Amino acid sequence: MFDTMTMTKTVGALCGSLLVFLLGGWMAELIYHSAESHDGEHAQAYVIEVAGSEADEEEVVEEVDFAVVMASASVEDGETLWRNCRSCHALEAGKHGTGPALYGVVNRPVAQYDDFNYSGALAAVAEVWTPENLNGFLEDPKGWAPGTAMGYNGMRKIEDRANLIAYLETVGD
């Protein structure tokens, strides 16, 4: 039924078809994408502007005063948010986990405990854990205090940070 010549033609036809598809894909890349960018990703060569698209609209980020948000903070919601922190911190004075104890942390000196090995990055940016300093640190720990050992990525919502700080104010001195 199949002789050598028929088998050779069949394999050649499959390889030829594959080659046509590969060349077609390569040509499409050249047509629809510009040269590679510096990070190896392709940028779109031609963009069709659409009225009312997201690219046309400038996103206005409204700067919110933290004191105003802090005035309306909820201690109960902050207690719920505390669950994320307690895997590394404790609320008992002098009892440390991976991070230092947070008992009475609001308005206390930074790096207060002598028996905890602080990274040193915190003392370089602040002297006291004011609510504003805690807000900045909780938003982006590594951005606020570069070199900190805290591995937390940060809390994005300002209301959540205010609620957590309001709860921490009720714990301790």
Automatic annotation (TrEMBL):
Q: Which GO terms describe its molecular function?
A: electron transfer activity; heme binding; metal ion binding
| Stretches assigned to the Cytochrome c domain | 73-172
The UniProt record lists the keyword Hydrolase: no
Q: Per its UniProt record, what SUPFAM superfamilies does this chain match?
A: Cytochrome c
Q: Which UniProt keywords apply?
A: Electron transport, Heme, Iron, Metal-binding, Transport
Residue ranges of the TM segments:
none
Q: Which InterPro entries match?
A: Cyt_c-like_dom (IPR009056), Cyt_c-like_dom_sf (IPR036909), Cyt_c_1A/1B (IPR002327)
In terms of superkingdom, the source organism counts as: Bacteria
Q: What is this protein called?
A: Cytochrome c
Which species is this record about?
A: Yoonia sediminilitoris
